[in-house]
UniProtKB/TrEMBL annotation:
Residues 7-194 form the Guanylate kinase-like domain. The lineage of its organism: Eukaryota, Fungi, Dikarya, Ascomycota, Pezizomycotina. SMART domains: GuKc. GO terms for molecular function: GMP kinase activity. This is guanylate kinase. The gene is GUK1.
């Protein structure tokens, strides 16, 4: 399959545990060499199986703050007591390789990128929100993943309600996908990403 004609980065957001990672990992698997992750920096500890430089750049609070002072981030935010940020360098390097960059970021990061854009600078991206079929199912998935402490589950569920409310703001997201049946949601994501670019984006 030819790469997407709209090569702008795709920002994927949605509550923790909704299936963002599951969906874009399918995209990576089914379209090798087409996409890449923006590989954020975070101060949280790696989960079992997560590798430094692949899933995240795992870093200390001290180093994270130094990166903020150096203006190294496109956006950064606090989530569940940890810090997360997207480095300018990572997105620039991957875009230069001709890959469509996928950013998995929470709501404050989405707001920051859109505010910068409104002021005429920074990323021109497409925005997808992944919603759960219900809050109950979201909680089941988050717990079922088995990666979070009870305290972390509670923080993430509280924040999920805020993110779900924000997703109703008109004009923020280009596409909202309910991740109920995985393959149906995946197809919606793939179709959205591969839809023809608006005329101004075509090269
Ligand atoms: P996120 O990246 O949004 O935090 P994950 O991709 O880690 O979420 O998914 C959370 C859990 O939900 C995982 O255990 C995953 O296997 C499961 N999951 C994802 N999508 C679905 C789905 N459509 N139906 C059932 N379980 C799902
Ligand atoms: P997790 O700890 O489950 O990997 O991620 C927690 C939350 O942080 C998720 O909502 C994820 O989208 C968000 N996140 C991951 N990386 C970044 C980032 O670079 N910036 C922002 N703003 N959020 C991020």
């Amino acid at each position: 399959m030819a790469p997407p004609s709209d090569s702008r980065p795709v920002v994927i957001s949605g509550p923790s545990g909704v299936g963002k990672g599951t969906l874009y990992n399918l995209l990576f698997e089914r379209h090798p060499d087409t996409f890449c992750s923006s590989v954020s920096h975070t101060t949280r500890s790696p989960r079992e199986g997560e590798r430094d430089g692949v899933h995240y750049h795992f870093t200390t609070m001290e180093n994270f703050e130094r990166l903020i002072a150096d203006d190294a981030f496109i956006e950064h935010a606090k989530f569940g007591g940890n810090r997360y940020g997207t480095s300018k360098q990572t997105v620039a390097e991957q875009t230069a390789k001709g890959r469509v960059v996928i950013l998995d970021i929470e709501m404050e990061g989405v707001k920051q990128i859109q505010e910068q854009r409104a002021r005429g600078s920074s990323l021109d991206a497409r925005y997808v929100f992944i919603a759960p079929p219900s809050v109950e199912l979201l909680e089941q998935r988050l717990r079922g993943r088995g990666t979070e402490t009870e305290e972390s589950v509670q923080k993430r569920l509280t924040q999920a309600l805020v993110e779900l409310e924000y997703s109703k703001t008109p004009g923020v997201h280009d596409k909202i996908i309910v991740n109920d049946d995985l393959e149906t949601a995946y197809k919606e994501l793939e179709d959205f990403i591969y839809q023809p670019a608006p005329a101004a984006q075509q090269v």
